[in-house]
Amino acid sequence: MFNDGPGFYLATSALALTFVSYCQKYWLNRARPPLPPGPTPLPIVGNVLSLDAARPWLTFNAWRSTYGDIIYARLLNKPVIVINSEEIAKDLFEGRSTVYSDKPQSIVYQPFASDFNTGLMPYGDRWRLHRRMFHQAFRQAEIPAYHALQLRSAHKMLFSFLQDPGNYPSHVKMFGASFIMSIVYDYEVKAEDDTILHIIEKYVELIVEALTPGATVIMETFPFLLRLPSWFPGATFKRASLECLNAGHDVKEIPFQHVKERMSTGDAAPCFSLQLQSRRLLPSHLQGGVETTSSTLLVFLLAMVLHPEAQAKAHAEIDRVVGKDRLPCFDDRPALPYVEAILRETLRWHPVFPFGAPSATTTSDIYKGYFIPKGWYYNVLAKVANDPDY
Q1: pTM of the entire structure?
Q2: Residue 71 has pLDDT above 60, yes or no
Q3: DSSP structural state of residue 264
Q4: Largest separation between any pair of C-alpha atoms in the chain
Q5: The domain containing residue 12 runs over which residues?
Q6: Nearest-CA neighbor of 285 among 98, 144, 92, 120?
């Protein structure tokens, strides 16, 4: 005989609601367009085991030949859209910027001292404030104000090449550091072992090592890993977090203290940090500028060594346009199209940051017949060189 008590009716109601919810979800999924193509995810882990842990962009780039220019993958519980086409990137970022301008919110940013980084902030009032301040200092009309400083740093680097050519990586690093630190902090880097330069390099190194795509999705899927005590066996993520927090404190406070000390003595020259002091904003994404500038120049040197014919053509163009009595300057740039092409090819050939910064959709969208849900992560992947060692 059936039990007709209250518990029976509650259980029956719950079962009916579950069934209706499942049917609704099933029919909605049938009615909407399909997700972009991609590798079949495994239960629980998704596609994370298929990634090259050290160079995941190579895996995404390899998938392009099988699945096309827009790919869906799942890394543990994180759905990811990978864009492998300039055409699609322009369609989405420029044509539908209101949908694709957000940044994914992540529990790992604060424990790894990255929550003040403008490039990782979700779209909102705080992001708009940061963007407005950066735009005021670095909009196109302001760039010529920095040309003299850049040329002075470049000439100093070239003189160092002549004096000590074997130590070229150090000279390149000093070039990037000298003009970026001057612009941001009114600080002159005088030696490779400079204290503030070392602080910034340490911070960037720790963040790059700690927040790989694989490590990020693991911590987001299992957040308890960040709540373990640092002494606990296997608490690698927690110990890395503490290192990043200490380095993040130093990279924010120590350069800024330099600016405040110069202000107190009346010696402070105009610089970006001085403009931001009243709002207590910090030039967060410029802290990686030293590393990216140096790496790009090293890629350029590699390209010139591997392709001496291109170097010879560029040299001939400079001799023809500039002459042999002076070095090129920014005013010569429009008349040096081959040199300009080499610059652009350097950025394309071996990009120092193959992943675009991860972003997220603000609402669901349909593109080329594919359904892209709200809140999904997406990456723009630069087309990397077909080089097995890259």
Answers
A1: 0.73
A2: yes
A3: H
A4: 105
A5: 1-31
A6: 120
